[in-house]
Design goal:
single chain; 368 residues; alpha/beta; D-Maltodextrin-Binding Protein, domain 2; 6-stranded mixed β-sheet; 3-stranded parallel β-sheet; 17 helices; 46% helix; 14% strand; globular
Length: 368
């Protein structure tokens, strides 16, 4: 009888023991921003199960992380301002380079670009990068505004142009963190300015076009709608437009870089350059599993699969032979040196400026 009771107790405990021994990594990444096969392969190779959640804006990510104990092991913040703020706040774990040999695969020049956010590149590895610019349908724009410049922020930010394009649809991604620096650049101001006059000028510029903007939504929503032909001019991330091209092609709607198709434009005034980072929260429940995941993602063939899937460039030069030729050769995916030379990077504003920008963005969305 005693033996039977002991056996029964052991059988009841087995599920709990199995759960306790299960190896997991909790990942929080942007929407539509990974190669599903990479997750499958990582699980098969390591026996570590991936719990995968997504966000659609930096504001959402920061809100989740700000309270602490998020439960995530790997997050993907943009270098500025979110990643740099997390570094300064001590919210990220220093990378254990001995456990991450694939860090050596990264482009040294690109790493130098993010060193101002993370001195010594101590807390993050570059996942993907790109620019913020415009997605446009030139044929529809020319029908309404034949004299509007297609290579300038003037196309959307000048009220007289925005008014004419309202009929075919203007959308702007719902992220003041990303959009306001570009507006400041267009105005000839410092994209990192905390000056009250500069921020007031940016707010006035945004409010001037607000009556003509059809939607201010998450970039992922812009991508789908742009592919479906709902908008003719948008402000969003470069890769979202390139992905929308692929979806438009699959649906039979005209695409390409010619005059008839959907295309991405890096405005001549300059586009913001950004880097999305693989980082580990300081309170990550499974830091060793997190490091295994980061190291896996930096394998050349793995990160090449991500670039092929989501059409954003990665920072591993040895991955290029595994990137499909039509992707590797697209300057909207891998910008030329001349295009990169026209970009700028934004830094995290101080607390007072951040509050002012947040108020500006709220007023813009409300239209007053």
């Amino acid at each position: 009888m005693i033996l039977l009771r002991a056996l029964a107790a052991l059988l009841l405990a087995l599920p709990s023991l199995a759960m306790a021994q299960e190896r997991v990594v909790n990942v929080y990444n942007w929407t539509d921003y990974i190669d599903p096969y990479a997750i499958e392969r990582f699980q098969q190779e390591t026996g570590i199960r991936v719990r995968y959640d997504v966000f659609d804006s930096l504001e959402t990510l920061e809100g989740k992380l700000s309270a602490g104990r998020s439960g995530y092991d790997v997050i993907v913040p943009t270098s500025e301002p979110t990643f740099s703020r997390l570094v300064r706040a001590g919210a990220l774990r220093r990378l254990d380079r001995a456990a991450l040999p694939n860090l050596a695969n990264q482009d040294a020049a690109l790493l130098r670009q993010v060193e101002s956010s993370d001195p010594g590149n101590a807390h993050g590895a570059i996942y993907l990068w790109g620019t913020i610019g415009m997605g446009i349908r030139p044929d529809r724009i020319r029908a309404l505004a034949p004299d509007a410049p297609l290579d300038s922020w003037d196309l959307i930010l000048r009220p007289e142009n925005a008014r004419r394009l309202a009929r075919c649809g203007i959308a702007i991604m719902d992220s003041g963190i990303d959009v306001i620096p570009s507006v400041l650049r267009w105005l000839g101001r410092d994209p990192n300015s905390a000056d009250a006059g500069d921020l007031r000028a940016a707010e006035q510029a945004l409010l001037a076009i607000r009556p003509h903007v059809r939607a201010i939504v998450a970039s992922s929503a812009i991508m789908d709608a742009l592919a479906n032909g709902e908008y003719c001019a948008v402000i969003t991330y470069s890769g979202d437009v390139v992905q929308a091209q692929g979806r438009a092609r699959e649906s039979g709607r005209g695409v390409g870089r010619d005059s008839e198709g959907l295309t991405y434009v890096q405005p001549r005034e300059g586009a913001q350059l950004w880097f999305d980072m693989l980082a580990i929260p300081a309170d990550a429940p499974n830091p060793e599993n997190a490091q295994a995941f980061v190291n896996f993602m930096l394998r050349p063939e793995v990160i090449a699969g991500v670039t092929n899937q989501v059409r954003y460039p990665n920072a591993v030069p040895s991955s290029r032979p595994s990137v499909r030729p039509e992707v590797a050769g697209d300057p909207n995916v891998f910008p030329t040196a001349e295009m990169v030379a026209r970009t700028f990077t934004a830094s995290a504003p101080g607390a007072a400026a951040e509050r002012a920008r947040s108020r500006t963005w709220s007023r813009f969305k409300a239209g007053r």
